[in-house]
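On to our target:
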Amino acid sequence: MKKIILTISAVLLCTGIGSLRAQNTDKASAPEAVEAANAPKEELPTNIGVPAECEDVMLQAFYWDSYKLTKYGRTQWLDLLEDTTAIRNNFDLVWFPPCSWAGGDTKDQYAAGGVGYYHRQLSQMNSAWGNRIGLDKLIQALHRGGTKCLADIVINHRNNKSNWCDFFEDSFGTYGRFQLNESHICKGDECFTKSESTCYGSTNKGAADTGTNDAGCRDLDHSNEYVQSWAKAYVQWMINKIGFDGFRYDMTRGYAGKYLRMYNEAANPYFSVSEFWESITNEINHLKATNYNTLVFDFPLKETMGEAFKFGTYSGLKNPTKSFRGQGYAKYAVTFIDNHDTFERSDNQSGEFIKYNADLNNADVKSKILQANAYILMMPGVPCVFWPHWRKYTNEINQMISIRKRVGIHSESVVSDEASGGYSYSATIQGHHGRVYLRLGKNRDMTQPVNTYKAMEGNDYTIYVEGGQGIETVPDVKRGEKFMKDGRLYIRCGEKTYDAMGRMVRGEK
């Protein structure tokens, strides 16, 4: 889908075709200046893993147990390989599930071991999702289309080898071999306090935990220099040897933010996002502790959206104070609606968007999901689309992504918004190439702003565009010349060159 759209976009750019449709006129013209609500409140340092004015759109390419489930499509490596054209034609970033072995059968180190969040051996890349060969093929296929791959980094905790406190050795090639032991486990871990543990009462243990405890397996002591060396070697290996471009850090409440900063400084990823599930105040404090060297999932915004769309009261969406945008840090937000932990999980029913186990075929549920996707895809921050939503409503979400790309909405775009009587929402969002006018709710303003075209409309949402690259289909126009360079796809139109996402590449002839 996106390959066609992007080629058309590139053609429109190099031919100058794509005039706006005839317009209605009324009061809703774009303001000359929009409120810069996301301006940081202090001078910020140079960031690692935080692209400036980032236009990327992210896909979480799995859901819980999707290595075996088929309800929304199975997502083993070879399954995703079959979908790479559709993925790379719409997404800049793809978040992979944990890639390492988490085997449940200690007699067979290649046993699958489920989703992978309780891994046993980080350097062993055969998992329930597939083997190393399939992983390599998938990464290479996505890279060929210009899409970057994010590894799920699980270093807060570790599963054992044969008893409570022994571990498999990790071998990260030129980055070193590491053998963790009980001295690398936080001293407050239950393995030292439960009488059935093989290391009950041991004095050979680490320092106090610098975050919250995970009772499922052993919490690692990140204040220990050996653990730090192990983690730094791992993330460097994942970038330089396995081929990942960035990271999603799991359960970062489990250790101090300064260690995430340390690991990013070692690996220098293109993109980093931290799972720090907390209040907005605590999330921003965590961001500061990393010295702003990561983005953070905006969990407070997810909760705000859930309330707004569940009850149809939109007032909370207006510059939401319990969000990164509302606090002036939109650049550091990864926005999302649901994820593997919050979707159809019987052990976390309160975390699901709208309600637990909602029927995605239901018209009202569809309306709410598409409104929420329209909201995050037209807003600053880096939006993360959830696999079941994308698979269920592929055409609609792809069209929203295309609108975002054409207008050039980015992580630092400024927004002017309002909520009318709680039952409708209007926003103007400034992109690199134009503006988007987003209207949500049954009682939304249906007046078309001047100098715009209606880019998309569905139940309870309308999107108007001013400027951008146009969306008209242009028949019989010569396609741009496609070529590969350094493993990346480019499109040449006249004297200009565009990347696989339809963006102009400066200095490329």
